[in-house]
Sequence to fold (324 residues):
Amino acid sequence: MNQANRNNTADRLTAVVANSLDTPAKTQEFARQAYQSRTQFHRLFRSVIEETPAAMRRRLLLERAAYQLGHTGASITEVALDANYGSLEAFTRAFRKAFRTSPSIYRRMRDSHFHLAAPNSIHFFAPASSTTGSSTQGENDMDLFDRFAGNDSWHTQRLLEYAGTLTDEQLDRPLPTVIELLPWREQNKTLRQLLENIIFTKEVWTAALSGAEMDMNGAPQSQRSPKAMLQRLEKTDAELHRILGDIRNRSSWDDTFVDALCEPAETFTYGGVFAHIMTFNAHRRLMALDALRQLGVQTEGFGDPMEYEESVAPWNQLVAHKAP
Fold:
């Protein structure tokens, strides 16, 4: 097959899959549209496109989902359904594996990058997308709120994923060293307790900022596994970042609110609360990181915001795409 014929074949096969994103199409249907048997279509597709039809379709659907999260007001559930996932949990799991962060955190980052690594440079082509692979200076800027809040969520997520590889005995094993620095008492003698304190802190302040009720006894034991805490993190982060993001956008960090969960009720500034959460959760995260290493887990990094910035910065992840 000469290069011209190969290019024409690639365009034709690509179109078959790219035009199927809004239908529950299967390989058999792809083959029918290409006027070939299923076996012939699959073999030709892999030879020319260097990717299976199913893998390419899943990738394009995730790229489209990432675009929708960053550029539309559709809810995460709507985006998940549009990507042909039967549940929000399944979509979140697939999205996190592909983009190394949860859909809620990705949306909050306002990341314009939505292409995944591909062997063929064929990607979801969004409306008004640039075909040059370049980005406009300033369109991906992150301010200090983005960096601090994003890093806290991102690093906590990684800690919980590491913790998910441990047994209950390891999670509840007393730590050999415990640093008591906080002016209030909290249980931090095991890794599970450290991680629970990170999530609970965010849940408490989310409730205080939104005026919602909160059980100050904390979550039941059934909600303290790494998997359950990860789900709680994503839920409370979505609301907390929405509230604080709105405060940031209004430049209202010095405004005050009444925390009715305190006894007696107390008044705080929004900026003070945000700095409080980031400061003490950073302390807990570093203790949890040390605990993981003491338990033999091979971890990466130190929870440094610069690690988070390097991981998510779209200007370091530009991938050229093929124009239709």
Observations:
- The chain has a mean pLDDT of 81.
- The radius of gyration is 23 Å.
- The CA atoms of residues 167 and 173 lie 10 Å apart.
